[in-house]
TrEMBL record:
GO molecular function, one term: 4 iron, 4 sulfur cluster binding
This protein's name: Iron-sulfur cluster carrier protein
Family: Belongs to the Mrp/NBP35 ATP-binding proteins family.
Residues that coordinate or bind ATP: G127, K128, G129, G130, V131, G132, K133, S134
InterPro entries: FSCA_dom_sf (IPR034904), MIP18-like (IPR002744), Mrp/NBP35_ATP-bd (IPR019591), NUBPL-like (IPR044304), P-loop_NTPase (IPR027417), YlxH/NBP35 (IPR033756)
Record-linked CDD domains: Mrp_NBP35 (cd02037)
Subunit composition and interactions: Homodimer.
Domain MIP18 family-like intervals: 9-79
Keyword Hydrolase: yes
Species for this entry: Bifidobacterium pseudolongum PV8-2
GO biological process: iron-sulfur cluster assembly
Keywords for this protein: ATP-binding, Hydrolase, Iron, Iron-sulfur, Metal-binding, Nucleotide-binding
Superkingdom of the organism of origin: Bacteria
Protein function: Binds and transfers iron-sulfur (Fe-S) clusters to target apoproteins. Can hydrolyze ATP.
Amino acid sequence: MDDRTALIETAVMDRLGHVIDPELGRSVTDLGMIAGVRAQQSGPGAYDVMVDVELTVPGCPLSAQISAQIEEAVASYPDADLTAHITVGSMDEGKLQALVSDLKAQRRENPFNKPGTKTRIFAVASGKGGVGKSSISANLAATFAALGYDTAAIDADIYGFSLPRLFGTHSQPTNLNGMLMPVTAWGVKLMSIGMFAGSDRAILWRGPRLQRSLEQFLADVWWGEPDVLILDLAPGTGDMAISVAQALPNAELVVVTTPQPSASDIAVRSGLVALQVPMHVRGVIENMSYFDHAGERLALFGVGGGERVSAQLTRALGYDVPLLAQLPLDPEVRETGEGGRPAVLNADGSLCDDAFGRTFADLARTLMRRGQAAAANGSTTRA
């Protein structure tokens, strides 16, 4: 091997250090996925570069994406014309086990309640079902991702899971020797009981098992370090809401209601959980606030529910719980969501530049900004 070839091999390996595994969020070199790099001159100023890649699992669905990143990294070398030739294999059992053990040792437990975590956690709650809580969770998560935030979402509504359908994913999480990789759809890392075999059957779990399911979603899944985690909670104030508060005391609660008193009165109870657990109620979202028809705005479910919830929680909790947004009743939102794409997104994954998209963009920015302002003022709420 001449000095020129050795220099190219070293430079390529350095460049591969910037290729990030989409699931693990770390470089392929740090993960030991590059088994070898060999350069061979193919012409004046031109070299073939053979890259041996060992993926964590055979047939990894992200193999093509990783290979494309490697090709781009090799081609970026400025001092010669390099052509990548990639051989893809998989790690042997010993190497994979060592990698998983290393990842688990770095985390050991729920990564979201450690001091210094950068992840903002928004738990979306409602007093009753049928108010569009899951649709709001899905669209809010998709909005954060479209705005450039590294975003994760957990379907904590164990009985009524719906995020897989709303994100149009039928994939199962990849199992790396007991560590799960979340499924990514529309830029959001997802985990739901609905992704596992037999999830179409009725689930009759209570207390301890419910809590364990949440602990597994938090501690047994490799999330990396997302900027935002959205939790779609089960309706009401039962076991799962308490489990979330215990596991994630830094979570910020967002209460969803509809305008009519039968929904808003119950929604207040979901916010009052904050009197018993260390969660801060960030604000209220009123869904199905109005229906635009033939130039007329119709209040099909009455008016004032969001304002009532906001006012009652502000009085009871002793701090401002604002009405963050009022969302329309729009059949297209339902149709698009049930078709597998959050309605806030265009078909290419970009944020819709319409009233619905702008409302969610403003909502996402407000949620992030309010937390930062609270921290600057010395509040106990996380920033």
